[in-house]
Design brief:
- The protein is α+β, with helices and mostly antiparallel strands.
- It has two domains: 68 residues, no CATH class; 77 residues, no CATH class.
- Helices cover 31% and strands 12% of the residues.
- The strands form two sheets. The protein has a three-stranded antiparallel sheet with strand order 3-5-4. The chain has a two-stranded antiparallel sheet with strand order 1-2.
- The longest helix is centred in the first third of the chain and has 9 residues.
- The chain is extended, with a radius of gyration of 21 Å.
- The termini are far apart.
- The relative contact order is 0.09.
Amino acid sequence: MLEKESDAKRREDNQTTLIYIDKEAQIDEILDAIENPKGWKSRFRINVVRQGELPRKDKWIKPIFKTDEVEKPIVSSPLVTRISDLFDARYGNISGVSARGGTGADKFFYLTKKEAEKRELTKDYLHPLLTRPRYSRFFAFKEKDWRELANKDNLVTYSFVINLGVSYLKM
C-alpha cells in the first residue's frame, strides 16, 4: 500500500514501513502495523526506513529483511570468495537469456489456462500464480479474484510444479 507525498523534500524524509506478511492477516491488523510498527514486530517482519534511503536500483528485499546484517559479515570474511570472481554467471537456457534477458524457462513453467489444458496438466501440477502486482486491483486478493484472472485469455495464471522423478513424466 503506497501513498505519495506531493512535496519531494518531505517525501525523502518520510518513514516507510516495510512489512512482510507470511500468514493470513486482517486488513485492520495490517493498517495498524503500518501506523504502529513496534507493536506488531512479533507478528510480522517489519522494518521502518527513511524513504530517501530506499534503494532505487536494488530490489527491496534487502531493506525488508535487513539482509545487510547477515550479508556484510559473510562477504567481508577472508574465507569467502565471490562466485563472480571465479566464473562468469549464466542463467538458464543461454539462447533464451540472450533473446529475452530472463532465465529462458518462463514459457515452460508459467502457463495460461489454455496452455495448461493443451498440455493436459492436472491440478496436481498447477499452482495459482500472480505474475504482476498490477493484476491485484485491491489490497486484499482472494481466490475469487485469481479465478477471474485465470479465465482471461492469454494471461499467465499458473505455475507448473512437479515433485516426481523423471520416470513419472509423460514424454
